[in-house]
Design a protein that fits this description.
The protein is α/β, with parallel strands linked by helices. The protein starts with 10 loop residues before the first strand and ends in a 5-residue tail after the last helix. It has 16 helices and eight strands. A six-stranded parallel β-sheet has the order 1-8-5-4-2-3, with helices on both faces. A two-stranded antiparallel sheet has the order 6-7. Strand 6 (147-152) and strand 7 form a beta hairpin. The chain is 49% helix and 10% strand. 51% of the residues are buried. Bound molecules: 5,6-dihydroxy-NADP (NZQ) and zinc ion. Zinc ion binds at residues 140, 192, 196, 264, 278.
């Protein structure tokens, strides 16, 4: 097991009506900046419920946080936060708004006018503002993790920032907030959470049976309840997928294991360059990446095949290959693309993707640091040309 330190101070309030706990968890005398996105919370009633619970505390609002939030917008929010002397940031939204809030909390505490480089080096100030979260889209786990993924439009970069100081103080997870989500966003959430588990599970095998067992429980839950969520959006399905997405990326399953975030880093490049939804940038890449890294990942892929997909026949290599096929079929069942050919008019240029990774200093990806520009170009080529994908789309249950 790799040595680790784990501290997750975020208080989670989970269940129907969780938003009502806001007044209890907001400090009594704080000045609040309410951060939100494109306005969905004003249409589905969440804004009104939140405003009521903020009560008499002075509060200011900053809307318009983009999907894949922009650094330049967060600098504007920081100006308002300073002007109004707020001392608490309340994120109401999905991963984009939450990431922006956590990053904003640090920006406000930085004296520099352009703290990008400092924060990229994980040099977060001690006195960053506390953040609270009302989650409206389960997917990223951002509500109780240290990460913000931020896009700079001037630098042409989409990259992760991280500091344990940025973990929210509390997160309210009410599955009824998911009722206004489109099938498209629900599917994105399931696929994103699924890949978060795989990036911490299908890596070099280690002595971590507890983490692996937990990964298998989360994956099994998403496989069982993801399709039900899309079909019925039932309470049980909302509860199970919301909790699974949180557990997939709150630090627990990744503790002590070697992690491989290469699918995510290539995906961020695809999103920055082509505007592809985060989850869809992952489903396009991950199966080909696993086929490319087959020998290195074979052992864990075989375990995944047997324990999660309940494949019983075949040796390790056969089960591992079937497990990749099953993963791809699951992404297709959720309606997310599994090949660049599924992306409509978008034509992916390997050179542009590699250039993004080079700008981001991400030229040695994977748990062994051996996925560089040449390997990324090969993976993109395999994703485009994968011959077995066609067969999969016609037969989801084929072994
Ligand atoms: O902008 P609003 O009006 O809020 O609408 C959003 C947005 O259009 C809408 N939405 C959210 N909740 C809704 C709703 N619409 C109706 N009803 C609701 N209850 O959904 C759209 C997508 O929202 P967004 O927050 O962008 O989605 P998601 O939660 O998937 O977040 C994606 C961002 O998180 C980053 C991604 O890279 C991307 O920038 N990630 C953050 C991670 C982290 N912090 O650990 C890890 C992830 O791997 C990921 O990279
Ligand atoms: Zn993700």
């Amino acid at each position: 097991m790799v040595n680790f330190t784990l501290s997750n101070p975020t208080t989670i309030v989970f269940g129907r009506g969780a938003i009502d706990a806001l007044s209890e968890h907001l400090p009594a005398d704080c000045r609040v900046l309410l951060l939100y996105g494109g306005g969905s919370i004003k249409h589905n009633g969440i804004y009104d419920r939140v405003a009521e619970k903020i009560g008499d505390r002075p509060f200011f609002e900053f809307g318009g946080i983009e999907v894949n939030p922009h650094y330049e917008t967060i600098l504007n929010a920081a100006q308002l936060a300073r002007e109004k002397q707020v001392d608490f940031i309340l994120a109401v939204g999905g991963g984009s708004v939450i990431d922006a809030a956590k990053f904003l909390a640090a920006v406000v505490a930085c004296p520099e006018s352009d703290p990008w480089g400092r924060l990229r080096n994980e040099d977060y100030p001690d006195d960053i503002l506390p953040v609270g979260v009302v989650l409206t889209l389960p997917a990223t786990g951002s509500e109780s993790n240290p990460v913000s993924v931020i896009t700079s439009t001037t630098r042409h970069l989409k990259v992760p920032f991280s500091s344990d100081r940025a973990r929210p103080a509390f997160a309210l997870l009410d599955p009824d907030t998911m009722l206004s989500l489109s099938k498209h966003q629900l599917a994105n959430g399931v696929v994103d959470a699924f890949t978060h588990v795989l990036e911490q599970y299908v890596t070099e095998q280690g002595n971590t049976p507890i983490q692996y067992g937990y990964c298998e429980a989360i994956l099994g839950t998403l496989i069982e309840w993801g399709p039900i969520l899309l079909e019925h959006n039932s309470l049980e399905a909302r509860e199970n997928t919301m909790w699974a997405a949180n557990q997939a990326l709150n630090g627990l399953i990744g503790s002590g294991v070697r992690q491989d975030w290469s699918t995510h880093m290539i995906g961020h490049a695809l999103t920055e360059i082509y505007g592809i939804d985060h989850a869809r940038s992952l489903s396009v890449i991950m199966p080909s990446l696993y086929r490319f890294k087959f020998e290195q990942k074979k052992q864990m892929l075989a375990r995944y095949g047997r324990r999660v997909w309940e494949l019983t026949d075949g040796d390790d290599a056969e089960v591992a290959m079937l497990a990749i096929n099953r993963t791809e079929a699951f992404f297709a069942e959720m309606g997310t693309p599994i090949s660049p050919n599924d992306l409509g008019s978008i034509v992916i240029s390997a050179d542009d993707v590699v250039a993004h990774l080079e700008r981001a200093n991400q030229t040695g990806l994977g748990e062994h640091g051996d996925i560089g520009p040449h390997e990324v170009a090969t993976i993109l080529g395999m994703a485009k040309n994968g011959a077995d994908k066609v067969q999969i789309r016609h037969s989801h249950t084929t072994n």
